[in-house]
Amino acid sequence: PKPSTLSTASQPLPPDMPAAVVASSAAAPRKQTARQEPAPVEMTTQKIRDQIPAHYFKQNHWKSIGYLCRDLAQSAVTAAVMWYAVLPAAAAISAAFGGNAVATGLAYFVAWNLYAYVQGLNWTGIWVLAHECGHRAFSPSVAVNDAFGMVLHSALLVPYHSWRISHGNHHKHTNHLEKDTVFVPETVDKKALAAREAFTESPIASVAWIVIMLTLGWPGYLIANMAGQKYDRRASHFEPTSPLFRVTERPDVVKSDIGLLVMLGVLGFAASEFGLANVALWYGMPYLWVNAWLVFITYLQHSDVRIPHYTPDQWNFVRGALSTVDRDFSPVLNWWLHHINDSHVVHHLFSTMPFYNAIEVTRKYIKPIVGEHYVEDSRPLRTSLWESWTKCRVVAPHEGVAYFKQ
Fold first, then answer.
1. What is the DSSP string of 177-241?
2. Cβ–Cβ under 8 Å, residues 250 and 241
3. Which residues 6+ apart lie within 8 Å of 317 measured at CB?
4. CB 362, CB 343: distance < 8 Å
């Protein structure tokens, strides 16, 4: 690989790092807007892996279960604080204003939205661990991965095996214009692009579409393959005969559907016992936040003006894996979300590597190893989202490499 153009001077280099990697790490910072050039064909996953200590590639299900216990404990504490402290406080505010409808409504509105936001983060962490299961990174045992993954993802209304399969295909063909399965950009001519800009690129329209993406994007993708690869027939994660799956994978799709039906039954029973409104408040609102976080995270990982997409003749696995972005969400959110957002490049290179090791490899090794082909972003999230939405709409292929049309 070319010498690095990323500065790692502020990060101590591990003593076991190969000399060639250390030598490549003392270069000038890279401009935020610089386009990522295609990685050389000589850069392979094996050559990258050879420069990373072997112990980082080992899964430990006890360590993973420890993180799951952390998330479950946070979820329980959040619910307890809501029940024993926040709701009584809202009731006290209502009483202080003599039951005034506006004051009461505002107090409970703030209380329930605060709960939903915090619980949504807790459950997104659980979602990430189920995602680890799908990649066989939670445990060295396939059975353990599938058992935990099925329960955790079904609890969040995700078809575990169905999404595991389609997501695995995304990893196998990241940024391949004809085979990637999600966030596939459109290729349009200049006239079509001009007509679209007139309708969709006003600030008001952009905000509206962002809201739609964050609220309906995830169920839309699961149900109707929204923003996915185009097929000649209907593609759904709930249909065993969908073009998303091979014939041999259909039984796993059925298992996933059964898992969802069981969870819907649990929610239906809860609604009959405690009321639909309570289920909507305690489960539904955090669930919507999980969906929003999932789309927000993955959209920003794969939408950036610097990263290219490739036609079949120019694509290879390493080029696709490196055409993703590590984004810093803040120390608190990075920790809360198990670093799914700021160790994504390593995750795409080595998807079976546990997340708790992927972040260490990101910080210690990957930047100097892949050099200028590593893309990251530490700007405010609203800035990154707005830039990606307004500038990452369609691509213009040129000699097999397609950058977003500015």
1. TTT--SSPPB---HHHHHHHHHHH-SHHHHHHHHHHHHHHHHHHHHHH-TTS---SS---TT-TT
2. yes
3. 45, 172
4. yes
Contact (CB, 8 A) for 129 and 160:
no
Task: Supply φ then ψ for residue 404, to 5 degrees.
Answer: -65, 140
pLDDT of residue 298: 97
- DSSP 3-state of 7: strand
Q: What is the model's pLDDT at position 88?
A: 98
SS3 126: helix
The string of DSSP codes covering 29-98 is PPPTTPPPPPPPTT--HHHHHTTS-GGGG---HHHHHHHHHHHHHHHHHHHHHIIIIIHHHHHHHHHHTT
Q: Are strands 376-377 and 326-327 parallel, antiparallel or unpaired?
A: parallel
Q: Which amino acid is at 52?
A: I
Residue 60, Cβ density class (10 Å: 0-12 exposed, 13-18 middle, ≥19 buried): middle
Contact between 10 and 363 (Cβ < 8 Å)? no
**Are 326 and 304 in contact, with CB atoms under 8 Å apart?**
no
User: Which residue has tokens 């080992």?
Assistant: 58
Beta bridge partners of 176: 310
pLDDT of residue 396 exceeding 80: no
- Summarised one tens digit per residue, pLDDT across range 9-60 is 334 445 555 544 444 443 444 455 689 999 999 999 999 999 999 999 999 9
Nearest CA to 367 out of 19, 16, 49, 24 is that of: 24
For the whole model, what pTM was predicted?
0.89
* Tens-digit pLDDT profile for residues 281-332: 999 999 999 999 999 999 999 999 999 999 999 999 999 999 999 999 999 9
Dist CA 234 CA 243 (whole Å): 8
